[in-house]
Amino acid sequence: MNEPLVEMVAGKPQARLSPLVAGYTGYRIERARPGVHRGLPSRHLTFIVTLTGTVDLTTMPDPAQPPASFTTLVGGLHAAPAQISHDGHQHGIQLNITPLGARVLLGLPAGELANTVVELATLLGPVAGELVERLRAASTWTDRFLDLDAVLSRIARQRDGPAPELGWAWRRLAASHGRVEVASLASEVGWSRRHLSARFRREFGLTPKVAARVMRFEVAHRLLHAPQRPGLADVAVRAGFYDQAHLYREWRELAGCTPSRWLAEEFPSVHDSAPEGRTFSTV
Amino acid sequence: MTDTPAPTIWPALAYADAPGAIRFLVEAFGFVETLVVPGGDSREIAHAELRWPEGGGVMLGSASDDKEVEPRKPGTACIYVVTDAPDALFDRATAAGAEVVRGLRDEDYGSRGFTVRDPEGNSWSFGT
């Protein structure tokens, strides 16, 4: 029984929450080698409830924010890695929240949380404690996902979404996985490039250009994470980088290391920890 | 993580209370959830996948009349699962309330195992 245990469970929220939450991931890792896990930039806000232990952030996406440990957390969009130190044991649920979900579920634009990590209770008040209790009391991931559905449906409020132009620009950029030029995005919206960048950044926390970089990076991340991992040159092309050197530069900047080092450090055993669902997978 | 190859045959089950069934399969038998897709209504599961730690797995969903992959009537499946540890599993399953159909015994063909029913009547046989 000294083998490491890695359990990753993918879940989808119920249909009416799906514009707000891209997916649930339950994770339980035991007896792994202690180390550092990188929290990498993505197009979603991070929402974590631990079931045991804490998430110990030793480096925040914004290094100006001091290190801290969380039993629950919400992290805004970011364009630099966070570092999480762990003792080989991690157990909790992560939700990927969309920028629209930030307004409807958390009550503020994603931009207000950019590059920051806060306790869930800061945003949700007493509901945070109730959620933790329910998730910890449940005995299966299925029940936890259904509890999340119930609590999130209850706190979802009809609130103004982002300005239609911004919502449209985000969806267009995301659908292209960061491949639309900012200039053409601006002309399609009918705003100046400068106006679009400023408003986009205020709403989401990243400029369109940085958001596009994060989305391309995310595609590369997903490809490297896949059970059938393509070669790095292939990953570079498929994620929209000029070449492998460009992919490496972006990884150094957004992940803080090269893709090869990331693979070696995050997956020391051959096995990937990607969720094992046959028909679906999440990032 | 186990080294078993990815399963290529998936028994599919339907349950009136799918979340309850998943709880039972996890607690009584030791199945491991890998994927959960809720349905439209609360407590309804469109599709879930559970892995058997010794290899393979099952799919299940909430019973409804428009199912194409799962059976339409719950409680009619008979499934045989291979295990190296039938004695420990028998204790675990009966402690969790599984209804015993055939107790633990050595078969003349060399297998040791037992058969129980889950709360909705499906028959689960385990053997070496």
Describe the model.
The complex is a heterodimer of chains A (283) and B (128). Helices cover 41% and strands 20% of the residues of chain A. Chain A is of the alpha+beta class and 283 residues long. In chain A, a hairpin with an 8-residue loop joins strand 5 (55-59) and strand 6 (68-70). In chain A, helix 3 (126-137) runs antiparallel to helix 4, helix 6 (182-189) crosses helix 7 (193-204) and helix 8 crosses helix 9 (232-238). The longest helix of chain A has 18 residues, at 208-225. Chain A is globular. Chain B is an alpha/beta fold. Chain B has a four-stranded mixed β-sheet with strand order 1-4-3-2. Chain A binds chain B through residues 4-15, 24, 26, 139-143, 145-146, 149-150, 269, 271, 273, 275-280, and chain B through 1, 6-7, 10, 18-19, 22-23, 26-27, 32-40, 42-43, 45, 47-49, 51.
Describe the structure concisely.
By secondary structure, chain A is of the alpha+beta class.
What keyword list fits this structure?
heterodimer, A: 283 residues, alpha+beta, Jelly Rolls, six-stranded antiparallel sheet, 11 helices, disordered C terminus, B: 128 residues, alpha/beta, four-stranded mixed sheet, globular
Amino- and carboxy-terminal Cα gap of chain B: 21 Å
- Note the gap between the termini of chain A: 29 Å
Rg result of chain B: 15 Å
What low-confidence regions of chain A span 5 or more consecutive residues with pLDDT below 50?
269-283
Strand tally of chain B: 8
Which range best describes the helical content of chain B: under 10%, 10-25%, 25-40%, 40-55%, 55-70% or over 70%?
A: 10-25%
Name the beta content range of chain A. 15-25%
CATH class of the domain at 5-155 in chain A: Mainly Beta
- The rough form of chain B would be described as globular
CATH architecture of chain B: Roll
Ranges of chain B where pLDDT stays below 50 over 5 or more residues in a row are: none
